[in-house]
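Shipment paperwork, digital attachment
Item: protein structure file
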Amino acid sequence: MKNLLSMEHLTNRELISIILRAEEFERGEQPTLARSYNIANLFFEPSTRTSTSFEMAERKLGCTIIPFDANFSSALKGETMYDTVKTLEMIGLDAVVIRAKEDEYYNELLEGINVAVINAGDGAGQHPSQSLLDLYTIHKEFGQFEGLNVTIAGDISHSRVAKSNAIALRNLGVNVRYLCPPEWAGDFEAHHSWDGLIEDSDVVMLLRVQHERHAVNSGFSKESYHEQYGLTVERASKMKKNAIIMHPAPVNRDVEITSELVESERSRIFSQVRNGVYVRMAILETILKGRE
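Attachment content:
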């Protein structure tokens, strides 16, 4: 495992290995890297959780973080992603964590680049580190994946989280269902009502409505969306006894989910954030050790 670009590239064995290593980090085990590595975080889209989580993971691993501000980089002068990353490689970096607006931006980095590349989100494509922390959260809760019912509800077609988790969860034997307005289904076969979904779901995974990816005059109404597709208190009351609520965040409160449910007993939304540090430690350690 020399890079992390897409969940399509990971085997179940690699997924489980990262989950188990994250579990060890949460228990307090120490990293086993042979030296301090130089890493830069290249975020060309806004981020709170992912960017700071990666930076915290890097610091806990003893890495040296080389500052990079996309708003003051040569990308604004038209420099290609390849030339930016190649430049950082020549300066002495060992790895880059990249979030970009373009789907599959990493394809231009597959040849000629010798630093490790970790995809922190590509457009509406993939978000593998988020998927892995979601898997870790589910594994902590249930101890296994086979036979679980996971309902992913929200902005499916624009969601890199939905795409990443669809691949991983199905490969692990999870029964994945999708819920969204008809126009947001994309290539997914989706339900358009909670009927028959809420009662047997082990996990209800909500997705942020990505207003920035919708047309300005799309006719979207927060109130009507919440009424039809949001997780309300009434719907949550019908969930199985041990079922949990997840959301990659940021949360549009009272749109995808009623605000009072965000920190309810069932919710693992903020636990996911904490879990993300351990998982990203495991990802980085695995990739960097693979290059030692």
